[in-house]
Specification:
Pfam families: CbiQ (PF02361). One of its GO terms (cellular component) is plasma membrane. Belongs to the CbiQ family. It is a multi-pass membrane protein. There is one protein chain. The protein has 204 residues and is mainly alpha-helical. The protein has one domain. Helices cover 71% and strands 0% of the residues. It has nine helices and no strands. Helix 2 runs antiparallel to helix 5 and helix 2 packs across helix 6. The longest helix has 27 residues. The radius of gyration is 21 Å and the shape is elongated.
Length: 204
C-alpha cells in the first residue's frame, strides 16, 4: 500500500538526490556561491531547526576552511601595507568556494533527512549497496551503519567522553527491519535520467 502512494522508490529518490549533490559540487565560482545560498534557503524553508542544528555542528570547520585558504593561498594581498600577514584575494575566493561546497552539502543532507523517513533512507542505501555485493560490500552492514549515523545526527550532541563511554558499552540487542518495495518503470527512468544527465554534463 505504501508503494502505491510513493511517487518513486526510495533508492531512486536517493539517486536523484546524489545527482543534485554532485551537480552542485561541480559548479564553478561564483555560480556555486549563489547555488549554495539557494540550497540553504530551501533547507531553511523545509526544516529550519534541523538545518540550523547541522550548520552549528560544522560552524568551526566553515570558519577554519575560510581562514586557512584566505591566509595560506598565494596571490594579491588584500592589505598592501601588511602583505606578510594579509589574506589574499585568491585565498578569499578559494575559501568562499570550499565553504560554499560544504554548506551546500549540509543543506542538501538536511533536506534529505527532512523529506525521507529514516526507514526509507536505510532501505535506499541497502538497495543501492546490493549492486556492490560482488565487490565485497555488505548491504546489511551499510544499512546498519547508516541507521547509527542518522541516530547520532538527530540525537543530542554528546561530549567526547560520553561518546567514548557509549562506544565501549555493550551493544543492545535489536533488529533493523526494512520493508521491501518493488521497482517500477518510473524508478528505472529516474535512475537512467541521473546517469544520462551526468554523462552529458561530464561530456560538455
Amino acid at each position: 500500500m505504501l508503494a502505491d502512494v510513493m511517487v518513486l522508490h526510495p533508492a531512486a529518490m536517493l539517486t536523484l538526490w546524489a545527482g543534485v549533490a554532485v551537480f552542485v559540487q561541480t559548479l564553478p565560482a561564483p555560480t556555486l556561491w549563489f547555488a549554495a545560498l539557494g540550497v540553504l534557503a530551501v533547507a531553511l524553508w523545509v526544516n529550519r531547526l534541523r538545518t540550523i542544528k547541522l550548520i552549528r555542528r560544522i560552524r568551526i570547520l566553515l570558519v577554519m576552511i575560510a581562514l586557512m585558504f584566505a591566509f595560506a593561498t598565494p596571490g594579491t594581498a588584500v592589505f598592501a601595507d601588511g602583505a606578510s600577514w594579509s589574506p589574499t584575494y585568491d585565498g578569499l575566493r578559494l575559501g568562499a568556494t570550499h565553504a560554499a561546497r560544504l554548506l551546500a552539502m549540509v543543506s542538501l543532507v538536511s533536506i534529505l533527512l527532512s523529506k525521507m523517513p529514516v526507514a526509507h533512507l536505510v532501505l535506499a542505501l541497502h538497495v543501492l549497496a546490493s549492486a556492490l555485493r560482488p565487490l565485497g560490500v555488505s548491504p546489511e552492514r551499510a544499512a546498519v551503519r547508516l541507521s547509527l549515523v542518522l541516530a547520532e545526527l538527530d540525537g543530542p550532541r554528546m561530549r567526547w567522553r560520553d561518546w567514548l563511554e557509549t562506544v565501549e558499552a555493550p551493544a543492545t540487542q535489536g533488529a533493523l527491519r526494512l520493508e521491501a518495495l518493488p521497482w517500477r518503470v518510473q524508478d528505472h527512468g529516474a535512475v537512467a535520467l541521473v546517469f544520462f544527465a551526468g554523462l552529458v554534463w561530464w561530456w560538455v
